[in-house]
């Protein structure tokens, strides 16, 4: 029992505007589902990517938002539950093309929840039109890379606003305080659904252990209607690389020199240059695990009526093999043939 003149703060009614939930002791709950749906539509509906030298990609419709969100206050601590599956449509239009030639696709965000950081949110990208076409592959890659980054940023904004804006009136004013006084981060707790037995989830994120990545190799051969030195220059001259990449690039054409193509999505270092017959590189997608490079060897063999180009690549993460192979075919081989008139049938 409390001593005279003291007392348990749970039972003291202070001078406060509502005279309820003294010192924020009792569990209070506020449904955030409707607010969340409106906010998610607002944030995703603004997504638009203007890619210099290529075209414009934008979200056209939020087709489905399924899930729920709840904010709670217990003993002055804010606890959040939210779980959403979001689907949306997008379109991409190359510069100079009419609207009826736009590439159309969809995205799905299956795991927006309090159990994942915004950086861990998955964004699944698919095409509805343009599958297998150069236009389709271009915009799908833009959405998978730059689009995913922007979507994660918008989801981080949603999480922040849920905590700071929507839940601001859950911490009620006590004597000598104001309702709008911000709470410290120590009072913001994310509770996993699996921890609903009354204990608060640890604020520490689980340590991710290194996993062995399965590797694959590929080899492509192509007949080019050009001389060997012409093809060599296409891959080592900044102006020519810019032409077939259709956008800004970075290129240092010397051994040890670095390169970045396709808005930085492809990057690497030159290991060996033997004009006009050999180019060897360390090569990677920027989405690959940090520090992991494949090795690319491009042999250029001039024949009587054509030049045979053979591309060999080792140490490709197996889950990215198909994208890598399509990239070589669509964004290198086909783009070079189309840009410089080196066209020929597959060898």
From TrEMBL:
Signal peptide: none annotated. GO terms for biological process: protein folding. Keywords: Stress response. Transmembrane segments: none annotated. Residues 29-168 form the Activator of Hsp90 ATPase AHSA1-like N-terminal domain. SMART domains: Aha1_N. InterPro entries: Aha1, AHSA1-like_N, ASHA1/2-like_C, START-like_dom_sf. One of its GO terms (cellular component) is cytosol. One of its GO terms (molecular function) is ATPase activator activity. CDD domains: SRPBCC_Aha1. Belongs to the AHA1 family. This is Activator of 90 kDa heat shock protein ATPase 1-like protein. It comes from Dinothrombium tinctorium.
